[in-house]
Amino acid sequence: MPMVINTWPFTNATAKAWSVITSGGSSLDAVEQGCTVCEEQQSDGSVGFGNHPDENGETTLDAMIMDGVTHDVGSVGCLRRIKSAISVARAVMNYTKHTLLVGELATQFAKEMGFKEETLSTNTSIEEWKQWKARKCQPNFRQNVVPDPQSSCGPYKPDSSNSFEQQPRYNMQVNQGNHDTIGMIVIDSAGNIAGGTTTNGANHKVPGRVGDSPITGSGCYVDNDVGGAAATGDGDVMMRFLPSLRAVENMNQGMSPSSACEQALAPIIKFYPDFSGAVIAASKKGIYGAACYGFQSFHYSVYHPALLSPQVEETPCMKKVK
Ligand code: SD4
Predict the structure, then answer these.
(1) Which residues of 14-24 are buried (b: 16+ CB within 10 A; e: fewer)?
(2) 181, 275, 279: which to mutate for ligand 1, most atoms within 8 A of CB?
(3) Which residues line ligand 1 (CB under 6 A)?
(4) Over the stretch 70-127, which tens digit does the pLDDT of each residue have?
(5) Strand runs (DSSP E) across 81-233, as ranges?
(6) Using CA atoms, how far apart are residues 175 and 128, in angstroms rounded to an integer?
(7) Beta strand 193-199 pairing with 220-223
(8) pTM over 0.70
(9) Taking a C-beta distance cutoff of 8 angstroms, is the pair 242, 218 a contact?
């Protein structure tokens, strides 16, 4: 059954992807064009240009696209000065034998492939960055450095007196708007499955940071024989567990999509009870579900033949263990 499912209430992206597959397009085209809508509309400030500046005030982008038929993947991490990250990811898949290109040299590749170089900063992102500087760079992602990152901006140096303690995590729920990456799974009329993600990552990240979204098996994973899954949330933690791969493997073992997502999050909760994130999954038959942790509830968007327009569904999150 053809269908589209994506994280968060980004129904314009859902509708675009659906229009692609219902007019005969492939699931890969649908993922690319659907995610592009979010990049252009700067959905919730978490996708595309002009938001979530890093410590230096620059916005950089992470994206991936995966083909469930061939298992081919293209990804970009920390992409600079190119707006259409999902299309650059597709270009990595189409025009190289690599999987992931990062940073300035990913930009160079994109330019060679004909993408336009332009700033990803806007008045909004510059203002956001200035306010963060005025708040003494709070919150941030540093730990075990001097000066104390909980009260000072950098430049930082290692704190040699410190024993590398893990500091409490940056709470993505408190910092609303820091977690709305789009992850999308599409099944087209031929039954072919594709998935993708695109995001500007974590607000005030350390320059050079790449999150979970462009990592195969973490941000997204698809397998035509089983289904697909995509994740959103605290990527620095999530990418240590490959939750999308786990969700697809769980479905392969016979779990329902919802249980597969819950069980994909369980190992993360065991180690990081203060993390927040969500996973969506769809089986190759178009049965879908989601699970979340650390938010009160989680919204995702779906479109399938029984609907006349994209629908937002809500799932309550698993109980916090801490
Ligand atoms: C990241 N996972 O870069 C992303 C952030 C996000 O929904 O918003 N995810 O960590």
Answers:
(1) bbbbbebbeee
(2) 181
(3) 46, 179-181, 199, 201-202, 211-213, 232-233, 235
(4) 999 999 999 999 999 999 999 999 999 999 999 999 999 999 999 999 999 999 999 9
(5) 100-102, 145-146, 157-158, 182-187, 193-199, 220-223, 227-233
(6) 13
(7) unpaired
(8) yes
(9) yes
For the chain, what percent of residues have pLDDT higher than 70?
A: 96
Q: Counting atoms of ligand 1 from 1, which one is nearest the CA of 234?
A: 10
Within a 10 A sphere around the Cβ of 95, how many other Cβ atoms? 12
- The rounded distance, in Å, linking the Cα atoms of 173 and 199 is 17
Helix (H) or strand (E) run with residue 302 in it? strand 297-303
Looking at 3.60.20.30, 3.30.70.100, 2.60.40.10, 3.40.190.10, the CATH number of the domain 3-119+172-316 comes to 3.60.20.30
Question: What type of residue sits at position 204?
Answer: H
Residue 258 and residue 283: Cα distance in Å, rounded? 10
Residues near 252 by Cβ (< 8 Å), separated by ≥ 6? 223, 225, 226
User: Once rounded to an integer, what is the mean pLDDT over residues 8-21?
Assistant: 97
Q: How far is the C-alpha of 66 from the C-alpha of 75, rounded, in Å?
A: 9
Q: Which two tokens stand for residue 152?
A: 């000072």
60-67 and 193-199 beta bridge pairing: antiparallel
Summarised one tens digit per residue, pLDDT across range 287-317 is 999 999 999 999 999 999 999 999 999 999 9
